[in-house]
TrEMBL record:
PTM-bearing positions, type 4-aspartylphosphate: D47
Keywords assigned: Phosphoprotein, Two-component regulatory system
Pfam families linked to this entry: Response_reg
PROSITE patterns assigned: RESPONSE_REGULATORY
Positions of transmembrane segments: none
Residues in Response regulatory domain copies: 1-70
Gene Ontology BP annotations: phosphorelay signal transduction system
Keyword Phosphoprotein found: yes
Organism name: Bacillus cereus
Stated name of the protein: Response regulator
């Protein structure tokens, strides 16, 4: 999950963990791309309005490398 709002991060993370998902959190687009390049993911939850790289930029970068659902 790439989300810059810590309250939203925690809310989504807690919900997904109750559903037995493993959650990796990044706080901005640059951190999200770093995590994406380190490991593989089954799904990416991506905020649109973030500092450094916005969600549209991150989505375009991910899509150029992978077909993972965003």
């Amino acid at each position: 999950m790439v989300e810059d709002d810590q309250e939203i991060q925690e809310l989504i993370k807690q919900f997904l963990m109750t559903q037995q998902y493993t959650v990796v959190v990044a706080s901005d687009g640059l951190e999200g791309m770093t995590q994406f390049n380190k490991q593989s993911f089954d799904l990416i939850l991506l905020d649109v309005m973030m500092p450094n790289l916005n969600g549209f930029e991150v989505s375009k970068m991910i899509r150029s490398q992978s077909n993972v659902p965003i």
